[in-house]
Amino acid sequence: MSGRDSTTHGPGTAHDGTGVPSPATPRAANVTRSGSGAPRTAPRDRATAPSTSSSAAPDTATPPRTGLRWAGTRAFLIECPSLEHVMRLHAHLSAHPYPGQLDVLAAAETVLLTFTTPAAARRAASDVVDIRLDSTEPAAGKDVAIDVVYDGEDLAAVGKLTGLGERGVIEAHTGTGWTAAFGGFAPGFAYLVADGDPLEVPRRDSPRTAVPAGSVALAGRFSAVYPRRSPGGWQLIGHTDAPLWDVDREEPALIRPGDTVRYRAVRELVAVSSETALPASRRERKHALMIEDPGMQSLLQDRGRPGRGDLGVVASGAADRASAEQTNRLVGNSPEAAVIETLLGGLSVTARGHHVLALSGAPTPARIEGPLGGRAVTCHAPFALYDGERLTLGAPDRGLRTYLAVRGGIDVPEVLGSRSSDALSGIGPDPLSAGDELPVLKAAAGRTVGLPEPPAVTLPTPGETVTLRVSPGPRDDWFTPEALETFTSRDWVVSEQSNRVGVRFEEPPEGPPLERSREGELASEGVVAGSLQVPHSGVPVLFLADHPVTGGYPVIGVVLPEDLPLAAQLPPSSAVRFTFTDPPHPASDTAGDTP
Question: Is 365 exposed, middle or buried (0-12, 13-18, 19+ CB in 10 A)?
């Protein structure tokens, strides 16, 4: 089991949680919608995009129409005929959100809409067919100037590939404006498309394992600046010191979709020194929890930071939200309060001041030691931890993640509106370490401590096969009927490589992996928690709370949100059986083609 999530990814590598494909990768133009029944393959003739003649006069109000694909019960993809249409649709839906709309995420060929409830998603799916976009509608954005030293390792190679030479590449790169089409793979990363003739170059044959932060790069028709050190396969032509991402700014991302970027060639970048404030002296808190031992991994989590996909930021939050909210309920906190999410026991904390705590999730033997002697603690019920006492958690006999809440909530600074730690992007508090002090807020007036409750999630006994319900699509038609049958008839064994990014499965020894029904690659598109993405290995990856914002492998189905808490509690060697559900989308049969 991967204790400390360290999964990284970069543009230019196909994305199973470890990389991102080129967004310009061609894919089949056939458009289908997931139907009903399971297992099955989507019919190939239900929603084929109508052909458009290049000689016909364009309708500026109604663009060509393509397809709608459901991505679980609370989200759907809108397929678009061009990147320009993606950008216009994204701008419209950002400015005119539907009721219950959580996020709108643009990609190379699609726009992903996510909602708070299935009902809100169904209503939007029924209405989205009537959206009329004015082709002259501008995408609101700001102008951004980026100074670049053109000294990249691949500049000479790009000069040869384009026939322009090094000087010609620099002149072409700086001589046109670039529009931020969409974000995605990392916080602050933006895919920029040229306003004029693009500099189209292929990705490197061999991606680099580490691209320095600030690298200016080209791939396909896009340009971008790497906001942080990460793997990547784009051609590097220069570097900049522009701060692409800074969570302390009012707008953390320097470049957002719709912004216009101008690159400016400079000979050198002048470092401007600034005084750094010394850290404030540590003040001992009267009410706090002291971390004596974090165990394998302990993180602070709350409900996360939804609605920031365009910044490359996933919602994150508690992996088993049902259990996290139960612990808060037991101590009388609001559901949004931050809790400790600890992996496989071992956590030990000491109280400063008197506190009320509760444990939920994976049941763990817990014991308190202190001046008053020792006593055992029951999970799923509030209990007292007095000043100077130490609480220690043992290893759970089932499940994976245990949640610890303290009455009042944990008081650490919010980042983008959340106290959650995002293992993939590195946003939020660091993993807890021995010696950390967690200040505790005063309990809100009028909120009372709860009564003992049954577990929020029924966890299987060791050796028991878990069934997870799956909504088919959005890319189930990329797989053969035999693969769909195999997907639901086989037991999938959880791998030790699983983490908060996703549940990985062992390669089955008894048969072939899931086979695709088509060749080619899928253009990068938005994904949601619960997505079952299938890389070339044919073994699915089940995305959890810290999943990447976009993915470049087909998603065969999406685990229902109601089953995600259970999925987050699956320890290594657990057996999982997937079952397709009947589509819960009555609007899908009436939505028809969408813009």
Answer: middle
